[in-house]
Amino acid sequence: MNLDFTEEQEMLRTSARDFLSTECPKTTVRELEESETGHSPELWQKMADLGWMGLVIPEEYDGMGMEFFDLIILLEEMGRNILPGPFFATVVLGALPILSAGTEEQKKEFLPKIACGEAVMTMALTEPSATYEASGVQLKAEAQGDNFVLNGTKLFVEMAHIADAMIVAARTKTGASPEEGITLFIVDGKSPGIKTEVMPTIGADRLCEVVFENVSVPKSRMLGELDKGWPIVARTLEQAAMAKSAEMLGGCEASLDMTTEYSKERVQYGRPIASFQVLQHYMANMLIYLETARNLIYEAAWMVSEGMPCTQLVASAKGWANEAYKFVTERGVQIHGAIGTTRDHDMGLYYRRALAADFAFGNTDYQREVVAKELGL
User: Fold this and answer.
1) Same domain, 104 and 161
2) 355 and 239 housed in the same domain
3) Last residue of some domain: 91, 119, 147?
4) pLDDT averaged over the chain?
5) Do 149 and 141 touch, CB atoms closer than 8 A?
6) 57/67 Cα distance (integer angstroms)
7) Residue ranges in 266-309 assigned as alpha helix (H)
8) Do 109 and 146 have their domain in common?
9) How far lies 312's CA from each of 48, 125, 161, 361, in Å?
10) What angle (nearest 5°) sits at the alpha carbon of residue 33, between those of residues 31 and 35?
11) Burial of 141 (0-12, 13-18, 19+ CB in 10 A)
């Protein structure tokens, strides 16, 4: 296992950092937070022109044909800068499942549209139980002729309010275990019977409640096999957990950099506050949390990219990333003092996202349960 970046990966990281700092400054982040959609079509198209939406899509579908680990590098930079919008939902929750489980016709229909920035996608998985386990999937899908009819409610669906299509996990039968009887469907986001409402969240990340009332979906839009959709979901959840961890890692880096620079400039009692031992220890601990997270995330992401079994390591990485991002941003706010608690300071942007990211694709308690299960406990 060699986790050193290649020259191409270093170029990707550098170009992404330069682009995001120029095209998506914190003023833009705040404007998008307050906007109706939380999405900038102009910024979206610029990213599409760079090939970012098609980064992991094969060249035969108009993508760049790069690896999952390359996507991790890009997402780390997005987290470092804070990028609002539907990139994560479209690429991680939309393109990757279609790439792994879609028919050739589905790939030809959706992947080129994603790659060029024409389509926004997401996945509708969690429900009022708010669990990422198979038992939480209760939305019903009943076969009627050449269609399936969907009824039920999904919660915390990222960017559903602007999605052109959603991958919906539905229960098509009651099996011997919760994992049996789950089927995935690619549903037109503007289908009759779909009602979408944006939910207020601390991260301003546009999570939605989506109600499906007699929504008709052609059988040709089934993703994977009937009643056997859970393995696709499980794979996507591992990829999403690593992708979110990469964002969190980037946020940790930015928060630590911001805090150390501030501590060198802020003078109190006649000297920079960075000279006080307690604050030095705070920032040393912030670095330890950060570097431990980096090692876990890179190793787990590499294993996911290689298609290796790594459930325990993914859970360990996401669980640690949850705690690391919260610790680093909490200490960052504390060291900044009163200004760190304001909405006008960048430190607060990262702190709120740390709290929101903790729950995405499994909070720390959930990840501990996964690790315990993998240990045979």
Assistant:
1) no
2) yes
3) 119
4) 96
5) yes
6) 9
7) 277-305
8) no
9) 34, 22, 34, 14
10) 65
11) buried
Spatial contact of 102 and 113, defined as CB atoms under 8 Å apart: no
Tell me, yes or no, whether 79 and 141 share the same domain.
no
6-57 confidence digits (pLDDT tens): 999 999 999 999 999 999 999 999 999 999 999 999 999 999 999 999 999 9
What CATH number should be reported for the domain holding residue 362? Answer: 1.20.140.10
Q: Which two tokens stand for residue 98?
A: 């279609």
- The structure tokens 């296992």 sit at 1
17: exposed, middle or buried (Cβ count in 10 Å: 0-12, 13-18, 19+): middle
Q: How far apart are CA 33 and CA 349, in angstroms?
A: 10
Gap between the Cα atoms of 377 and 371, Å rounded = 9
C-alpha to C-alpha distance for 108 and 97, rounded to whole angstroms: 14
pLDDT at 338 over 90: no
Nearest to 118 by CA among 86, 88, 92: 86
156 contacts: CB under 8 Å, gap ≥ 6: 126, 130, 199, 207, 208
Measure Cα distances from 31 to 26, 72, 90, 121, 294 in Å.
Answer: 8, 26, 21, 23, 30
CB contact at 8 A, 178 and 133: yes
- What's the total number of domains in the chain? 3
Q: In degrees to the nearest 10, what's the CA dihedral of 206, 211, 215, 217?
A: 40
Structural domain containing residue 207: 123-227
Residue 339 has pLDDT above 90, yes or no: no
Q: How many CB atoms lie within 10 A of CB 288?
A: 12
pLDDT of residue 201 exceeding 80, the answer is: yes
